[in-house]
Amino acid sequence: MISLLGKAVGLNYDKARGYLLRKWGRLCCLVLGIKLEIKGDPPDPPFLLVSNHLSYVDVFILFSRLRCLFVAKSDVKKWPVIGFIIKTCGILFIDRHRKRDVPRVNNLISENINEDQGIILFPEGTTSPGFEILPFRTSLLEFPAAHNFPVSYAAISYALIVMDNNTVYEKVCWWGDTPFFVHFFELLKMKGFKAIIHFGNESVIEDDRKRLAEKLHQRVQYSFEPVIKKKDFLEQHDEFEPLSF
């Protein structure tokens, strides 16, 4: 509805929304004390970009650098405050419990990539503590595979700025069953932290979505800087249950 009203008065809604979301992302980074370290060059629209997924913070830092929309799990709409903001800014939602929803979302991806914005996917389908890149789901890579559309990639990691008792994999990465508000409150108490985004220098083109997912996974894995070593994590946690997102 907002998009239609914007077009009626001659406003480029996608461009205006991208500008505002970028400002919002930068404001969130400032409030949370996030120092960004960028490696490589962010892609310009139109683009489709895949990234690993560690926390809701990923959304803030990517918004701050890219003119983009995200594909997110429909449950995110129920999140307090952030859920409302995400619903009103045109995020594309998918119901992962319904396989029939995948074609609809693939169509939305193709329709929303344009000269003013790109689309970002988290193909792991979940967050993690950051000791490895989880396997990539292939369902939402049907559009680029079917149309030989180049896919960009990025690897996200987090680190401390000031050494203290806070551990990044617990305080910034959001995994397991910690409620959102509890985790966010602990995040606000931190003295600041560093977010590293490593953008790939070349996009990937592949006409088979499984091969495309494999190549993208390899490249993200190669660029990824682990938040914690797998050995150290497993010594502290016998079981790992990632939070579906």
TrEMBL record:
Q: Which pathway?
A: Lipid metabolism
What are the protein's UniProt keywords? Acyltransferase, Lipid biosynthesis, Lipid metabolism, Transferase
Q: Name one GO molecular function term.
A: acyltransferase activity
Domain Phospholipid/glycerol acyltransferase residues, every copy: 47-159
Q: Look up the coiled coil feature and give its residue ranges.
A: none
Q: Which Pfam families match?
A: Acyltransferase
Recorded hits in PANTHER family, A to Z, give: 1-ACYL-SN-GLYCEROL-3-PHOSPHATE ACYLTRANSFERASE, 1-ACYL-SN-GLYCEROL-3-PHOSPHATE ACYLTRANSFERASE-RELATED
Tell me the protein's name.
Lysophospholipid acyltransferase family protein
Natural source organism: Gracilimonas halophila
> What are the leading ranks of the lineage?
Bacteria, Pseudomonadati, Balneolota, Balneolia, Balneolales
